[in-house]
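Box 4.2: Ligand-aware structure prediction
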Amino acid sequence: MLRIGLTGGLGSGKSTVARIFEVLGIPVYYADDAAKRVMNENEQLRKKIIEQFGAESYAEGKLNRTYLSSVVFPDPQKLAVLNSIVHPATIADAASWMEQQHAPYAIKEAALIFESDAHHHLDFVIGVWAPYELRLQRGMLRDGLSKEAVQERMKRQMNEEEKMQRCDFVLKNDETELLIPQVIRLHEELVERGS
Ligand code: ATP
C-alpha cells in the first residue's frame, strides 16, 4: 500500500481535497486532529509539554489549546520547541495508522510535511496549490480573522512555491480548473501505482 502525504498552505484547500479522496473510498489521516488526540492521550508527551510550558497547558485533564496557542504562536522559538516534542509522536502515530489500512493507498493530510520531516515516511506527497490572495480570502472567511491575522499565520509557513516544487503531484485549487476531476485523475493514477 502506498503512503501518500497531502499538504498545502493555509486556505489552499487540502482538507477539502482530503474529503474528496474519502468519498472515493480512500482512508485519510488528519494530522491536526490526531495531534490533538495524541497530546491528550500520550502520557510522556503530556509530561514534556508541562515541563516546557507549565501546568496550565492542561486544564481538567485536557489540553488547554487556548493557553498553549497564546504562548507558542507569538514566539517562533517556542513553537519550534513544541513541534519538536509533538512531531515525533504524531509521525509514529500516523505510521502505525498507515499499517492498519487496507486500500491501494492511504493519505496523511498535514499542513507540515516537509517541515516536520514526515515525507521520509511517505511514498509520495500531493500539494494543493492556490494563489496567495485566494488563500488569504478563504482564511479570513473561514476563521473570521482579520487580513493581518491571516497574513501573520501565512508568514510563518514555508514558502508556497518551494513547497509545491517539492511535491510529487500538484492539484490546482484556484477556481480556474474544476477540483473533483483533478482528484479523480490522480486517484486513478495512485490506484494503478498502488496495486
Ligand atoms: P488550513 O490549513 O487553513 O486548515 P486547508 O488547506 O485545509 O486550510 P480548507 O479548509 O480545505 O483548506 O479550505 C479553506 C476554506 O476554503 C474552506 O472554507 C473551504 O470550504 C474553502 N474552499 C476550499 N477550496 C474551495 C473551492 N475550490 N471552492 C470554494 N471554496 C473552497
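In the box above, the bound molecule is adenosine-5'-triphosphate. The pocket of adenosine-5'-triphosphate is lined by residues 8, 10-16, 111, 138-139, 142, 173, 175, 179 (CB under 6 Å).
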